[in-house]
Design goal:
This protein has helices at about 1-15, 50-55, 130-155; strands at about 35-45, 65-80, 85-100, 105-120. By secondary structure, the chain is α+β, with helices and mostly antiparallel strands. Strand 3 (about 85-100) and strand 4 (about 105-120) form a beta hairpin. The radius of gyration is 23 Å and the shape is flat.
Length: about 160
């Protein structure tokens, strides 16, 4: 019995020898403006902006950067019933980012990123399930938009002014 336990332990240890950890490469985890940025929002007010901005930017008082984000929203009725109730609604969120470096007193990066999603309301009146579904679509859209912005920043020199011609 003890031999089989020892063989099982040895087999387990040998089989786990080639495990590669996802976060072993730290370059995938870089966010050059994390805890160095004060964020300001204008335009469309989305509740999840504040939740995700604290995750991605979270200033600590010593703000090297100032990030201004202007959000515009366009809604397009894609499918309307005969009684004019909406069946499908397309949303387009446009995020205009302006990253300002306070040390060199200039804009170091400008970017516009669009997010799109389609929403299908389940009733023409109040529906808690539809409201929660729309909230989750907004959350996902904001999260993906911030992630795309951070991914672009990794390759940018944040110590030199952008060409603003």
């Amino acid at each position: 019995m003890m031999k089989s336990v020892y063989l099982l332990i040895i087999f387990f240890l040998l089989s786990c020898g080639q495990i590669e950890f996802i976060y072993e490469n730290k370059s995938n985890l870089k966010n050059p403006i994390y805890q160095k940025t004060q964020v300001f929002f204008t335009g469309k007010d989305i509740a999840s902006l504040y939740k995700y901005s604290s995750i991605y930017f979270e200033g600590d008082g010593d703000d090297l950067y100032e990030l201004n984000i202007n959000i515009n929203e366009e809604k397009t009725r894609r499918s309307v019933q005969t009684n004019q109730a909406i069946e499908k609604l397309d949303y387009k969120l446009t995020f205009d980012y302006n990253l300002f470096n306070n040390n060199i007193d200039c804009i170091v990066y400008k970017k516009t990123i669009e997010s799109r999603f389609t929403f299908e309301p389940k009733s023409s009146g109040y529906n808690f399930g539809s409201d929660q579904s729309l909230k989750k679509l907004y959350d996902s859209s904001v999260n993906n938009n911030f992630q795309n912005f951070i991914n672009d920043l990794v390759n940018i020199d944040l110590e030199s002014c952008s060409n603003e011609n």
